[in-house]
Amino acid sequence: MKILAICGSPRKGNTYAALQNIKDIFSDIHIEILLLKDLDFEFCRGCYACVTHGSCKCPINDDRDRILEKIDEADGLIVASPVYSQMVPALMKNFFDRLGYIGHRPRFFNQFAMSLVTYSGYGAEPALEYMSKGLSVFGFNIVPSLALQYRPGGNTESLQQENIRKSIEAFEVFLNRIRSGEKDKPTLNKLVPFGIFKAISTKAKEAMPADFEYYKSKTDYFYDVKLPFHTKWITKKVVQKELSKIFGSADSQSFSIRRKK
After folding, report:
1. Is the pLDDT of residue 257 over 80?
2. 82 forms bridges with which residues in the sheet?
3. Which pLDDT score, from 0 to 100, does residue 121 have?
4. Residue 100: C-alpha distances to residues 8, 31, 50, 131, 243 (Å)
5. Which residues lie closer than 8 Å to 80 by C-beta, 6 or more apart?
6. Mean pLDDT of 139-162
């Protein structure tokens, strides 16, 4: 089993130490720690080319594809970050920005991921929510996240032991989920965005050819899955309602008619 841990801290501090502790404790598992700060990984320029015309059109030639190759090779991914001002720092934010096109065209449906943050007093919740949601829209099967507290000036022995205990428990849950192969089920919260993206990709196929190519052969979901009739019906109604907010009621109905033909 191969686990990739991506550390989004600008220094080798508490977040790196937390990952190293897990690596030392679970020495029988192949765990690679990748520090974004040590990579050639430029900040996103916001040109949107990767979204509209494909990731190959990104004007930046750096280690992005190297990171993706390592993610592809791993059975599980840990994204780890400190909490700065109740959110992830710039390095981790840029990780999600640079890979944001995958939210349009998800791909990691066979892999598992968990989020880890180190924090001092507060802010763990919004940071974890941001990372877990980002991983989810990339297609990952999400495992419960982990928050570890580190006090300024150093932890007490009891808090250090508590962090180790929590790390062991969380990582064991992570490993067991990977071993079981149990994948997340398509919920309404995932089915509706799929329907919206598919509809938009058809309407805007000239402006967004990468999305059009991705969605044109897909039917009910990103991959083949059997959905109950009532789930399809509810999803269809919600998608039409959301599309009417974007394009108007006439256009949202036309999407439904085109799909029936």
Report:
1. no
2. 118
3. 86
4. 16, 25, 8, 12, 22
5. 5, 6, 7, 8, 9, 15, 18, 19, 115, 116, 117, 118
6. 93
